[in-house]
């Protein structure tokens, strides 16, 4: 008897677990994890890389504070924007995950007491539009994050050229330079504005340059992962919105069918009553 009760209890727990797992929106869960990971990489690595970039400029390319004052303010503003982006997407990812749970429940419990509402469908449509806008915006962020990677790669590749020319006495390394002023991040009157030969090679060997370069690469990869996550979210939301639309039509059909069956039952009951009254 005890074994039978334990078996029934385990079976009931197993069925409950299967039912709970069946209501989990796995696609939304994967997209949320990918979105959180991408935003975390972009914000965290981007913030540290920007700080390292300012340090490199102040120490090697712009010794006068007034020359890079505007750039420092812009970088500081970008760091505050990074804080806002991290907070917003943490909240937005949770909201989209909750919407995925809601839509999954609405579709799976279509034949039960759960009813989708016009407000719920409107909210799903709004999330589709907002996610599309954010996806386009993050494409721009992804492209923008590739710019510092390109700049640091040019500096690093120039250092590699200097190293390769050290064995060739006919080509002095002092003639190979990198001028940061040509990128427009500091004015043309900034001093020294450029680094040549062994000085440039030493810059590439510093910890600030090494860390900033690789952190910008990781931040760019994080932006790309966020774009993929938003595209994934967009596909999920579009599919869920279509499911909700079909569910509302099915509900309307079931309501009409139930009303017609009730009217038919009323007609039959009245007919029986009239027949009984005649007899």
Question: How many H/I helices?
Answer: 6
Oligomer: single chain
Identify the strand order in the major beta sheet: 1-2
Mean pLDDT: 77
- Briefly note the structural class of the backbone: mainly alpha
What is the gist of this entry?
Its main location: membrane. The chain is mostly helical and about 280 residues long.
Describe the protein's architecture and organization.
It is built from six helices and two strands; from the N terminus they run H-H-H-H-E-E-H-H. It has helices spanning 2-22, 26-61, 69-108, 118-164, 197-204, 207-278; strands spanning 177-179, 194-196. The protein is rod-shaped. One of its GO terms (molecular function) is structural constituent of myelin sheath. This is Glycoprotein M6B. Keywords: Coiled coil, Membrane, Signal, Transmembrane, Transmembrane helix.
Secondary-structure blueprint of this entry?
Blueprint: H1 2-22, H2 26-61, H3 69-108, H4 118-164, E1 177-179, E2 194-196, H5 197-204, H6 207-278
Helix pairs in contact: 2-3, 2-6, 3-6, 4-5, 4-6
Keywords: Coiled coil, Membrane, Signal, Transmembrane, Transmembrane helix
GO biological process, one term: negative regulation of serotonin uptake
Main location: membrane
What are its keywords?
279 residues; mainly alpha; two-stranded antiparallel ribbon; 6 helices; 2 strands; rod-shaped; disordered N terminus; Glycoprotein M6B; transmembrane helix; signal; membrane; coiled coil
